[in-house]
Each structure stands twice: as structure tokens, then as C-alpha cells.
Amino acid sequence: SAVISQKPSRDICQRGTSLTIQCQVDSQVTMMFWYRQQPGQSLTLIATANQGSEATYESGFVIDKFPISRPNLTFSTLTVSNMSPEDSSIYLCSVTRGWGTDTQYFGPGTRLTVL
Amino acid sequence: GDSVTQMEGPVTLSEEAFLTINCTYTATGYPSLFWYVQYPGEGLQLLLKATKADDKGSNKGFEATYRKETTSFHLEKGSVQVSDSAVYFCALSDRGQAGTALIFGKGTTLSVSS
Q1: Is A100 left (phi over 0), alpha (psi -120 to 50) or beta?
Q2: Where are the beta strands (DSSP E) in A1-115?
Q3: pLDDT digits (tens, 9 = 90+) for A77-112
């Protein structure tokens, strides 16, 4: 497995502002992903964070709203921009370690509330 | 597209009862199958996985068998404990390839009382 940390663990934000969430892994990983878990719902993939290039977004998610960076093999950020109450969710990063594996390990999540 | 269907919750059991949480899937190809558990206020933890037909994943007394003929991956435990109270998610890895999304079911809440 991998030790994954996220910052902040939770935050309460005002509508119209932006929040950047950090995901740090204790060792190099191959793939990094960002998911959203809306209240009482399952997880939905936002994007795959690609090291050194633009993230790959899923249908319904756009770069202007959720810009993502991955400057190296152990760190990624997700920004939630111009927030509205509908963005209130838990945001989780996940990683895979090693090529040829599809097992993802998840961080503890960031609980975001937008007022 | 690929999808995962889990039984609706919540599931309420007494300690030491037998647990089954049903999970069926739709997929083209041969996905890997997973069960994740989310304890209150925490992130997701991998509980077990299976990568091909007839594989059995097991961990912490939980088991699930990859049944291709019935496209199912039901989670079972012979004797649940209060500490097993959590939300359980069934998931598949699209085409079983690294770098592809996990597709999750809606989750099943388990509540175990002493």
C-alpha cells in the first residue's frame, strides 16, 4: 500500500472563492486520481493527474473549474474554483503503485463545505 | 458503459450474525473487482480484490468470489462485529488496466449492534 496524506482535512468556504487541496504520497507512485464523493453518494472520478502534463478530465468536469497539477511523482493538487454550495463534497485522491496494477489506494479525503 | 449495482442499505445486524452484501456488475471485457470500506469520518480502505473469474478475495474475515457466469462479487462474513459498522463499496476497474477509473456502486451502510 501507500501512505497518502491530504491537506486540508476539512474546510468551510464562502461561495465564489477557491480552495486548493494537496495530496502527498510517501513514495513514488505511477498514477494519481481525484474523486468526488457528494453527500450520501458514491465516488465519481474527476480526473487523472498526469505528471508533467495536463490532467485528463472525465465527462462533466472541466479544467477551469477543477485545475489540477502534478509536478512530480509524489504530489498533486486539486483546486475547486469559484465555489458554490453544490461543490460541498468529500474530495479524495487515490494512487496506484507500479505498472500493470489497477489497485487504487485512497487518501483520507478533504471534507469541503461551501456556504 | 460499465456499471456496478449494490444492494440497498442500510443493513442492520446483531453481533455475530452472518453478512451478505450483494454486488453485480456490467462490463465489457474482464474487469478486476474490489470491495472498499469507509469507516465513519475516514477515507476508503481496500478490503479485498479479485482479478479473474473464480478468484476469491479475502481479508479480515470477509470474502468475495468473482463469479463471471452471474456477473457477481457478493461480500460475505460469517460473524460480524460492532467494529465492522461502515459503508461498503463494490467497484470494478474498467478493463483491468492500470491508469483506468474505478467505477463504484452506491455503497451499502452496515450497522452492527451488540
Answers
A1: left
A2: 4-7, 10-13, 19-25, 31-37, 43-49, 56-57, 68-72, 75-80, 89-96, 105-106, 110-114
A3: 999 999 999 999 999 999 988 777 788 999 999 999
pLDDT tens-digit map of A22-62:
999 998 887 899 999 998 888 999 999 988 888 999 999 99
Q: Which of A38, A102, A105 should we substitute to test contact with B (largest number of B Cβ atoms within 10 Å)?
A: A102
Contact residues on chain A for B49, CB-CB shorter than 8 A: 103
> Per the structure block, which three cell numbers stand in for A87?
461543490
Instruction: Measure B15 CA to nearest chain A CA, in Å.
Output: 25
Nearest chain A residue to B106 by CA distance is A42
- The answer for residues whose C-beta is within 8 angstroms of residue A73's C-beta and 6 or more apart is A28, A29, A51
Put simply, the answer to whether A103 touches B34 (Cβ < 8 Å) is: yes
DSSP 8-state code for residue B70: T
Q: How many CB atoms lie within 10 A of CB A11?
A: 14
DSSP string, A10-34: EEEE-TT--EEEEEEESS--SEEEE
CA-nearest of B19, B48, B42, B22 to B111 is B19
Q: Tell me the per-residue pLDDT of B79-94, one tens digit each, with 9 for 90 and over.
A: 999 999 999 999 998 7
